[in-house]
Write a structure and sequence with these properties.
Blueprint (H helix, E strand, L loop, with lengths): L2 H4 L6 H18 L8 H14 L6 H13 L5 H10 L1
Keywords: Coiled coil
InterPro entries: Thf1
C-alpha cells in the first residue's frame, strides 16, 4: 500500500482507526470499474476527511496525511481541494 510509504510517522489510535477505514473506502471506490471523478465525489471526500480529522494535534501533519491519503490511490490532493473551493 502506498499510504505507509508517503506518511511514516505514527498516527494516534483514535485517528488511525478512522483513517484506515477511509483509506479502504477510497480504495474500493477508486478501483471500482464504474468510478468517475467528479466535484461531488471530491466534496464528500474532503468534507469527511476534514470533519473526522478536525481535532488532530498538528495542522501540518493533518495536511500531510491528507496528501498521503489521496495520493495512495494515485489521485491529486490539490485537485480535490480545488474542486471543493469551486462549490
Amino acid at each position: 500500500m502506498e499510504f505507509p510509504k508517503a506518511y511514516k510517522r505514527p498516527i494516534p489510535r483514535i485517528y488511525n482507526n478512522v483513517l484506515q477505514e477511509l483509506i479502504v473506502q477510497q480504495h474500493l471506490m477508486r478501483y471500482k470499474r464504474t468510478y468517475r471523478y467528479d466535484a461531488v465525489f471530491a466534496l464528500g471526500l474532503v468534507t469527511a476527511y476534514d470533519q473526522l480529522m478536525e481535532g488532530y494535534p498538528s495542522d501540518e501533519d493533518r495536511d500531510t496525511i491528507f496528501k498521503a491519503y489521496t495520493g495512495a490511490p494515485k489521485e491529486d490532493p490539490e485537485k480535490h481541494r480545488s474542486a471543493v473551493m469551486q462549490w
